[in-house]
Sequence to fold (146 residues):
Amino acid sequence: MDDAQNKMKIEEILIKNQNSVQLHPIGYSMYPLIVPERDEVIISPLKKKIRRGDVLLFRRKSGKLVLHRVIKVKESKLYFVGDNQTEIEGPIDPSQVLGIMSSFIHKKTKYSVSNPLYFLSWQIWLILLPLRKPISLFIHKIRTQK
Fold:
């Protein structure tokens, strides 16, 4: 399947058919929550008001699919940041949003975003935004020494 067919398939499943889709994210922008080639996410149709902390799948104007966390909603525009990033991206129009992460599979165990530990962890992680870079470097250093 080529890239254009893949794009249409994801949008068709999420938007037209109102079904969830399971994806293997690539890249490290959502690390440490999502590790590429190990973890998966379940993206569901968006059926609620978008709020700070939601992890949304959206399409940039360039056409690239992105899975990032909402850091703020201001004047009907969305602002995102990856869990392993410090740069805020936005404003993004809500019409670019394809779906919301409803659960994720971490080391073969499925977790709902309604899990209280998940909720607490992303709250703390957003508060620590100014300290993310040194924290991520420290975590990476520990993991690579094993």
About this structure: The mean pLDDT is 87. The two ends are 38 Å apart (CA to CA). The first strand starts at residue 21 and ends at 23. The chain is about 25% helix and 30% strand.
